[in-house]
Design a protein that fits this description.
259 residues; alpha/beta; 10 helices; 38% helix; 23% strand; globular; disordered C terminus; binds adenosine-5'-triphosphate; binds magnesium ion
């Protein structure tokens, strides 16, 4: 179980997270939605201890990770598998080497056992005979599946996905959506998925949380998301942009139109 309490983070003078409270229960898939730049990736990075907050606590299975040193944090990180927004595979390494690297960090098994386990993890994401290929030889959807296989290679308790379907065509995106559900069933993992993809969100979420202006603005089940009358949430799920001038003003960006 993950409990986030009053999490605050600023970069220079800009507060990105202004008091996030969120609980992720064992076995559930929590989808975090929100506009670009609202702090979703920053939130995920805090959960795996890649960023330190300016305030607040993050409890992972009862342990506060925000006060941990490097060694302790490293142990906790083994509980997590992370699928990065960009897949983040090492281009100079084969698929097998990419997975082996993630596996070597956590377990002490023989070369042959590692090879078999890697094959098994790739099969779980529907890939066969790709071990010797390099990331540049793979399509976007395949890269994403390799990134997912790498995230599960050390049997994590939690998988964090950062926009797993972004940049993929609708059919390939749906295979990733199905895969997220399948891994939840087969491995019993708890998942946190950051997503812009509302179709996928409805298919995978046990609960949806919307991050807006540094806080969790909405949290509920998918039925509640569908039925919400909250104008900010409705605008997001119906993909209606407010007038561009007000979006730019909201983000503090320069309004090019008025120049
Ligand atoms: N290391 C950093 N240093 C300075 N600013 C940062 C850093 N990381 C993130 N930010 C800023 O924090 C804000 C939130 O970024 P984040 O990447 O979390 O957005 P996001 O919600 O994931 O957006 P997207 O949907 O486009 O991926 C942005 O304004 C970004 O520029
Ligand atoms: Mg992001």
């Amino acid at each position: 179980m993950i409990v986030i309490e009053n999490l605050k983070k600023k970069f220079k003078k800009d507060w990105v997270l202004k008091g996030v409270n969120l609980t992720v229960d064992k076995g559930e898939t929590k989808v975090i939605i929100g506009t670009s730049g609202c702090g979703k990736t920053v939130l995920l990075k805090h959960i795996i201890g890649l960023l330190k907050p300016d305030n607040g606590k993050i409890w992972v299975d009862g342990e506060d990770i925000t006060t941990m040193g490097f060694r302790q944090l490293n142990k906790i990180r083994h509980k997590f598998g992370m699928v990065f927004q960009s897949s983040a595979l090492f281009d100079s390494m084969s698929v097998e080497e990419n997975l082996k690297l993630a596996l070597r960090c956590v377990s002490d098994i023989s070369v042959e056992e590692a090879r078999q386990h890697i094959r098994h993890c790739l099969a779980l994401v529907g890939l066969k005979k790709v071990e010797q290929l390099y990331p540049t030889e793979l399509s976007g959807g395949m890269k994403k599946r390799v990134a997912i296989a790498r995230a599960i290679v050390h049997n994590p308790t939690y998988i964090l996905y950062d926009e797993p379907t972004t940049g993929l065509d609708p059919i390939t995106a749906d295979t990733i959506t199905q895969l997220i559900n399948r891994l939840k069933e087969q491995l019993g993992v708890t998942s946190i998925v950051v997503s812009h993809d509302i179709i996928s969100t409805y298919k995978i979420a046990d609960k949806v949380a919307m991050l807006h202006q540094g806080k969790i603005h909405f949290e509920g089940r998918t039925e509640e998301l569908r039925q919400t009358t909250d104008p900010i949430v409705k605008q997001f799920i119906e993909a209606r942009a407010p007038k561009i001038e007000s979006v730019w003003q909201l983000k503090g960006e320069r309004n090019e139109v008025q120049k």
